[in-house]
């Protein structure tokens, strides 16, 4: 592994650890981590029954719609 990929590997390991810890603490079936655009970053748990990419994209669109409603001027 070259020196440029070592920091990335550490970040990936930390994300995986945090997702696993959250899964255990929440007693959820699965945990997904996605960016604001819906791009799946990581997951933990049993995801065979769902499409994680679709779930993260739907969640992102819901967040975007909610943000739009909240920024709409109320008279």
Note down, in words, how this protein is organized.
It is a single chain. The protein is α+β, with helices and mostly antiparallel strands. The chain has one domain. Helices cover 56% and strands 15% of the residues. It has two helices and two strands. Strands 1-2 form a two-stranded antiparallel sheet. A hairpin with a 5-residue loop joins strand 1 (30-34) and strand 2 (40-45). It starts with a helix and ends with a helix. The mean pLDDT is 90.
Outline:
The protein has 75 residues and is of the alpha+beta class. 56% of the residues lie in helices and 15% in strands. It has helices at 5-26, 52-71; strands at residues 30-34, 40-45.
Q: Main traits of this protein?
A:
75 residues, alpha+beta, 2 strands, 56% helix
Main sheet: strand order: 1-2
Query: How far is it from the N-terminal to the C-terminal residue, by CA?
Result: 58 Å
Rounded mean pLDDT is 90
Total number of distinct structural domains: 1
Instruction: From the alpha carbons, calculate the radius of gyration and give it in angstroms.
Output: 16 Å
Distinct helical segment count? 2
Assess the beta-strand content as a share of residues.
5-15%
Class inferred from helices and paired strands:
alpha+beta
Q: How many strand units? A: 2
Largest sheet: 2 strands, antiparallel
What is the overall silhouette? Answer: extended
Order of SSEs, N→C? HEEH
Oligomer: single chain
Q: Stretches where pLDDT falls below 50 for ≥5 residues?
A: none
Q: Classify the helix fraction into a percent range.
A: 55-70%
């Amino acid at each position: 592994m070259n020196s440029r990929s070592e920091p990335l590997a550490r970040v990936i390991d930390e994300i995986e650890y945090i997702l696993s810890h959250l899964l255990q603490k929440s007693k959820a079936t699965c945990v997904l981590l996605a960016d604001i655009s819906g791009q799946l970053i990581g997951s933990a748990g049993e995801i065979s029954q769902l499409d994680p990419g679709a779930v993260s994209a739907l969640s992102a669109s819901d967040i975007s719609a909610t943000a739009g409603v909240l920024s709409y001027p109320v008279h």
